[in-house]
Amino acid sequence: MFEIAPSILSADFARLADEIKSVEEGGATVLHVDVMDGHFVPNITIGLPVVRSLRKVTDMTIDCHLMISDPGIYAEQFVKAGADMVSVHVEADSHLHRTLASIRSAGAKAGIAINPATSLALLDEVLPFADFVLIMSVNPGFGGQAFISTATEKVRKLRQMIVERGLATRIEIDGGIDGNTIMEVVEAGAEILVAGSAIFGKPSPTEAVKELIDKATVWV
Ligand code: DX5
Ligand code: ZN
User: Fold this and answer.
1) Lower CB count within 10 Å: N or C terminus of the chain?
2) CA dist., res. 193 & res. 116, Å (int)
3) Which ligand is nearest to the CA of 8?
4) Which ligand does the CA of 141 lie closest to?
5) What is the residue-wise DSSP string for 21-72?
6) Are the CB atoms for 134 and 112 separated by under 8 Å?
7) CB atoms < 10 A from the CB of 118, how many?
8) How does pLDDT run across 53-67, given as a tens digit for each residue?
């Protein structure tokens, strides 16, 4: 079953609690939190104190997408701050297996995020140690970018790898997901659908979530 994961990157940070309520009302179940360090990606966003505050105002699944160098240093701290899911980039971590294990032992779902230019071949050894894989369908760093169309085939290929190995790994997709692109990625096998500007960029985030759910439902 798919889930809609609004990315707060496009929300109004001065009224986050209200923004969260509005997407919850629309039926969103996962809250996607983009953590950027100005080093792994050319942008800086938010960190641990904000995750702690979010935890106090919502029961939604908090999904921290760490776009930071050497995420192994911080991953466990995000779980302690309240994250239920934490993903780290395969391109940013020389000790990915260790980091995934530390996220799981801290009590959260461990995810591997992968950039558009990075081959799925890099997941070959480590896939059994992840609860989910986050396929980037834009280059990480900013909201509002156009969907990179090759991501759909990448989702399909990953789904095939997961099925062939008998794993229960979930697939998340992030970047350029809107009313036009959501159907093809769901059909290809994506289950956790991140959307930032397509939700918080709209006059009613509640209605925007409902519309995305309607479109994605056609395929399930
Ligand atoms: C980009 C972030 C995304 C971003 C998506 O680096 O990882 O989560 O918020 O924004 P949209 O949905 O606008 O492409
Ligand atoms: Zn993200």
Assistant:
1) N
2) 16
3) 1
4) 1
5) HHHHHHT--EEEEEEEBSSSSS-B---HHHHHHHHHH--SEEEEEEE-SSGG
6) yes
7) 16
8) 999 999 999 999 999
Q: Would you say residue 204 has pLDDT above 80?
A: yes
Residue 53, judged by CB atoms within 10 A of its CB (0-12, 13-18, 19+), counts as: middle
Tell me, in angstroms, the distance from the centre of ligand 1 to residue 7's CA. Answer: 6
Q: How many whole angstroms from 8 Cα to the centroid of ligand 1?
A: 9
Could you tell me if the CB of 174 is within 6 A of ligand 1? Answer: yes
Instruction: State pTM to two decimals.
Output: 0.98
Question: Rounded to whole angstroms, how far apart are CA atoms 74 and 76?
Answer: 6
Q: Which amino acid is at 21?
A: K
C-alpha span between 110 and 129 (Å, rounded): 8
Dihedral over Cα of 140, 75, 129, 171: its sign? negative
Q: Count of CB atoms within 10 A of residue 164's CB?
A: 8
Kindly report the number of other CB atoms within 10 A of residue 14's CB atom.
7
d(C-alpha 6, C-alpha 20), whole Å: 9
pLDDT tens-place string over residues 167-201:
999 999 999 999 999 999 999 999 999 999 999 99
65 lines ligand 1 (CB under 6 A): yes
- For residue 75, the CA-to-ligand 1 centroid distance in Å is 20
Structure tokens at 22: 């509005």
Our separate counts of H helices and E strands in the chain read 8, 8
Task: Give φ, ψ of 150 to 5 degrees.
Answer: -65, -15
